[in-house]
Design goal:
Blueprint (H helix, E strand, L loop, with lengths): L8 E5 L5 E2 L2 E2 L3 H10 L3 E6 L6 H10 L9 E3 H12 L5 E4 L2 H9 L11 E4 L7 H12 L4 E3 L5 E2 L6 E2 L1 H12 L4 E2 L5 H11 L6 E5 L2 H10 L3 E5 L6 H5 L7 E3 L2 H16 L1
Parallel strand pairs: 1-4, 1-12, 4-5, 6-7, 7-8, 8-11, 12-13, 13-14
Antiparallel strand pairs: 2-3, 9-10
Helix pairs in contact: 1-10
Amino acid sequence: MTSLADIQGFLLDLDGTLYLGTKTFPWTPGFLKVLRNQGKRHLFLTNNSSKSTSDYAKSLVSRGIQAGTANILSSGWSAIRYLRKETDIRSLFVLGTPSLETELREAGFDLDSASPEAVLIGFDLTLTYTKLERAAHLLRAGLPYYATHADLVCPSERGPIPDTGSMIALLEAATGRRPVVLGKPYRPMIEAALERLGTMAEQTAMVGDRLYTDMKMARDYGLVSILVLSGETTRQDYDNSTTQVDFVFENVGEIGEKLADINLDKST
């Protein structure tokens, strides 16, 4: 098993890992400072496609977290990269927020066509029945179908709320169709992340709070898996799960302390 000291790059989940809702965890700044001081590359990675990359950058900076668009990767951007690279699709019907729509338009996609080439579903906090109805018609007509991610719920300060996976389940019940998923834990997201970070899989850790996305992706694609118990997954959830990870910490603050201790041992 790779030791923490050997890890060159960190893929960092956001919600439930560095913060929860509007609350930034108090140990987050110290952890990120350790990464910077030790020259560890890091990329903020999120399945939440309700915000654009630029919106995430502004949000993180407002929380006191140093971030730019170059070190943020959302499932929305993973979808853009995949559709550009792997398909000829350029017009979409989107179930998504205005923020996601803006990012797609800026990437060159037509979202206003009367005859779109595909359907893309994201975490749509502006979801309406009219959107669902049109999506169902297009899916029954056989259009290619993609999703930014398939998380069933999104953590919030009020408790878990329905996420894209729940919307996918609704449309599956109505149409019998399931999408190609482009976010965690699937290959398009990890390929985009490693490409951006510039590290090999075995040198890279995925740090997150979800077993079925963060940890599954790490295990499936040869990354070091680091589970934190500050978000969705509890200790009991992990103990009852068949998923095994390389490291379990209460929060990222403990990871920072461990890295600092390792660095101190090396210097003495």
